[in-house]
Design brief:
Elements (H helix, E strand, L loop, with lengths): L9 E10 L2 E10 L2 E9 L2 E10 L4 H11 L9 E6 L10 E6 L26 H10 L12 H14 L1 H6 L3 E6 L5 E7 L2 H14 L9 E4 L5 H10 L3 E4 L5 H10 L2 E7 L2 E6 L17
Parallel strand pairs: 3-6, 9-10, 10-11
Antiparallel strand pairs: 1-2, 3-4, 5-6, 7-8, 7-9, 11-12
Length: about 290
């Protein structure tokens, strides 16, 4: 049996468009959504650690970023191989295998049970998660860059210019990595905002850029606990979002000294935590967490 070829990132469709009472049949492009199984291999042991709904594309980066953010892998030297499944069968186009070196301590996978089947927008929230993060992230995030309000306000436009799949479908989240001068390093897109960030972190993992202490991340949707958790583990000091943060995201940012910016639209934005990294605001007193 031949290996199944993975679907493209977009899928064609026919729609009826209604405008001012007039009906027109026309083609449309949809963001593809399919399951991705992430398998971990070490010696003779082979185990599925997660299944997530995602947009095909950058699947290897998604697997690496997910495993890094969850604390399963810590550096490129631990990974012998990351590749699509090579077994014959219809489902192999949606399976990524990550093989660890045998001398790497066997990872604790109990914490991944919540991800065994996850939607493209899945997340986990709770005080227990914050306590677990304090055990994993023992070093404070460095001061990092100080950025101007003008630079922050310009980031969404730079992201939109690079969002090829969103332009085609109008239905994808994006995560972008910027340098302190506003230079865009990479953009990844997916139907799930967490997947888009995992793909971006997986790219940085493969490029040897982690930790990202001198970088900014912009996400196209809201900033949830899990978005902040992934950025914290990757060492990102400044996280921006075009929409609102959750209360637990703000609490996480405040506890770990991250700069969290939300409602970034036009020349306006809110600073929820870490105002000291924003020029012109650093001298103002810190806001209380209610």
């Amino acid at each position: 049996m031949r290996l199944r070829i993975a679907k493209p990132s977009t899928t064609g469709a026919r729609v009826y468009r209604v405008e001012s009472g007039e009906v027109e049949e026309r083609p449309d492009e949809l963001a593809t959504e399919e399951p991705l199984e992430i398998r971990l291999i070490q010696g003779d042991r082979r185990r599925t650690v997660a299944v997530t709904m995602r947009t095909p594309g950058a699947d290897l980066e998604l697997a690496l970023g997910f495993l890094f953010a969850e604390g399963v892998i810590h550096g490129p030297e631990e990974v012998l191989r990351v590749a699509p499944c090579a077994e014959p069968g219809e489902a192999c186009a949606n399976i990524v295998e990550v093989e660890l070196a045998e001398d790497v301590p066997a990872p604790e996978l109990a914490g991944l049970e919540r991800h065994f089947f996850a939607t493209s927008a899945c997340g986990v929230c709770g005080k227990a998660g914050l306590e677990a993060l304090e055990l994993r992230v023992t070093a404070a995030v460095p001061p990092g860059p100080e950025v101007s309000p003008e630079l922050i306000a310009a980031l969404p436009a730079r992201l939109r210019e690079a969002q090829g799949l969103f332009t085609a479908t109008g239905g994808l989240h994006a995560a972008a990595l910027f340098e302190p001068d506003g230079n865009l390093l990479a953009v990844r897109e997916d139907v799930g905002r967490h997947n888009a960030l995992d793909k971006l972190i997986g790219w940085a993992f493969g490029e040897g850029l982690l930790p990202l202490h001198r970088h900014l991340v912009l996400v196209s949707g809201r900033s949830s606990y899990e978005i902040l958790q992934k950025c914290l583990v990757a060492g990102v000091p400044v996280i921006c979002a075009v929409s609102a943060p959750s209360s637990l995201a703000v609490e996480l940012a405040d506890r770990f000294g991250l700069t969290l910016i939300g409602f970034l639209r036009g020349d306006r934005f809110n600073i929820y935590s870490g105002a000291g990294r924003v020029a012109g605001v650093a001298a103002r007193p810190a806001l209380p967490i209610l």
